[in-house]
Amino acid sequence: MDENNGTGEAIEATERLQAAAERLEKTVAWLEERQAAMTGDVAKIVATVDATADMRQRELEQKLEAAEQQIAELKAQAAATSSGRKTIPMSTMQLLAKQGIGSVDGLEAGSLDAALTGLTLEQRVAVKAQLIRAGALG
Predict the structure, then answer these.
(1) What pLDDT was estimated at residue 123?
(2) Which end is more exposed in the chain, N or C (fewer Cβ atoms within 10 Å of the end residue's Cβ)?
(3) Residue 138: alpha-carbon gap to chain centroid
């Protein structure tokens, strides 16, 4: 009986092993399908991110180009406006006239200092600051 019992146990063990092997094969097949599906999803996500990044980069390049053009225009405007002389306030011109200076064209700092000796220090500084702002004194 021991032989029959041993043979029966061996057959039963073999059947269990076969069933386990079949379940493992099914599990492996399911995992492979799952992996394939996940890889496809990842590829779709990567393609979406690439397209979005390309659009964003083109958009940023266009904005940069527009900003550079605007900067160039502003620089040109600044150059055009700074080349002209600004207006000197009337009070400064009257103060200069009282000191014997009728025109600020070709005015030098030395001759200006000599002409403004009769004014207080604050007045001299104010006159010079106004002339510098107006571009009449360098």
Answers:
(1) 83
(2) N
(3) 38
- The pTM (predicted TM-score) of the whole model is 0.32
**Strand, coil or helix: 106:** coil
Question: Hey, is 98 helix, strand or coil?
Answer: helix
Residue 93 in contact with residue 85, Cβ under 8 Å? no
At 93-111, the pLDDT tens digits run: 777 777 777 766 666 667 7
Say which amino acid occupies 13: A
CA atoms within 13 A on the CB side of 83: 5
**Confidence category of residue 44, pLDDT binned at 50, 70, 90:** low
Helix and strand numbers (H, E) in the chain are: 4, 0
**Residue type at 114 in one-letter notation:** A
* Nearby residues of 124 by Cβ (< 8 Å), 6 or more positions away: 113, 116
